[in-house]
Amino acid sequence: MSRFLHTKFSSLTPYDTSGEVESMKGYIRLNTNESPFPPSPKAIAYSHEASQGLNYYSDPDCSKLAAKIAEMNGIKPSQIVFGNGSDEILSFIFMGLCENGAAFPNITYSFYKILADFHGVNFVAVPLKNFRVDPSYYRDMRKRTIFIANPNAPTGIAMSLNDIESVITSNPESLVVIDEAYVDFGASSAVSLIPKYDNLIITRTFSKSRSMAGARLGWCMTNEGIAQDIRSIKNTITPYNINAMTQAAGLGSLEDEEYTRKNIEMIRKVRDNTRTRLQEMGFTVLDSSANFLFAKHESMSGEKIFSTLKKNRIMIRHFSNPPSISDFNRITIGTAEEMQIFLEVVKGATEHETK
Ligand code: PMP
Questions:
Q1: Is the C-beta atom of 211 inside 6 A of ligand 1?
Q2: Ligand 1, closest atom to CA 179?
Q3: Does 99 fall in a domain?
Q4: Radius of gyration over alpha carbons of the chain, in Å?
Q5: Whether the CB of 187 sits within 6 Å of ligand 1
């Protein structure tokens, strides 16, 4: 820390991105829930074309993207705001729409806590019930902004639309944010509830099912009033937050739904097959509706499985906190070939293991 840093930032706890970048060349990357498939050829072509115009600032409203997403979801473009990844949208919400605090599950996307701490938002961490988000635990949230990932991460478990609606209706004074980063892999979107409730925000991303994690593109859908609030925050601090190549790539992806649909289908098939194989090897595997599995072995510790795989140049995600999930690992679904290699290494490691 230099002597110039504001003292309020003296004890930041940034998101742990270790081992997620260049140094992972040559590894099978099953640790960050990216897609193993490249972006749609149309996304690549559009983005290449857009690179010719990089001398101009990008469109601050992402008008073409907004029009397309509005059409696809039966809402107006004015109900949509884009972020540099959905992380940025989440950051805008923690920054400006959490005056009465926040609430989110005690086991969920770790960024919520990091953002809450950074923006000075007090929060309650609501326990899961048998690894599930239970709507009855969200009865009296006292105006706190509620964040729920559906499907949840790292569990992969989805919530029904009825359960989501029950959280919204029992908290009319709260804003409810449904983070649908992984929704395309098997959960029901709450987008149909937007016209019904004035306290709902849905966040989405191009990082997972659309194979564009490196492009950094996410968005939210809500009513016009809330969208305007989020847009004002964005336009105050980062009006050109989405670069022109990313906007073009996003449009290309949206114009190539068949490509995304096929990839999702493949990932779901490989996921379900991987789950069965892991269960045969003595793993407990939660019921995933996402592009990853959350699994623990009956006799080998989570840490040991993680380190054995790492030695074999396969990265998965191990969580040492909270201790209740330290025997679990989160495994992103890669290609069928990658998962075959993964399963062989796991089989060799766990075969003769007793705790
Ligand atoms: N929500 C959840 C639940 C996630 O796991 C992630 C990815 N780490 C994000 C949001 C953010 O994704 P991105 O910023 O790439 O859109």
A1: no
A2: 1
A3: yes
A4: 20
A5: no
For residues 188 and 271, membership in a common domain is answered with: no
Q: Dump pLDDT digits (tens) for 17-53.
A: 765 555 677 899 999 999 999 999 999 999 999 999 9
Q: Does residue 170 sit in the same domain as residue 194?
A: yes
Q: Is the CB of 206 under 6 A from ligand 1?
A: no
Q: Determine the structural domain holding residue 22 and report its residue range.
A: 18-37+258-350
- Ligand 1 near 217 CB (within 6 A): no
> 3-class SS at 323?
helix
Residues 143 and 285 in one domain: no
Residues ≥6 apart with Cβ < 8 Å to 75: 191, 194, 221
What pTM value is reported for the model?
0.96
Instruction: Name the token pair of 312.
Output: 């074999």
Quote the number of domains for the chain.
2
Helix or strand or coil: residue 211? coil
The domain boundary residue, chosen from 205, 222, 255:
255
State which ligand 1 atom lies nearest to the alpha carbon of 86.
16
- Residues 185/264, Cβ–Cβ less than 8 Å: yes
| Ligand 1 in reach of 179 Cβ (< 6 A) | yes
**pLDDT, tens only, 64-118:** 999 999 999 999 999 999 999 999 999 999 999 999 999 999 999 999 999 999 9
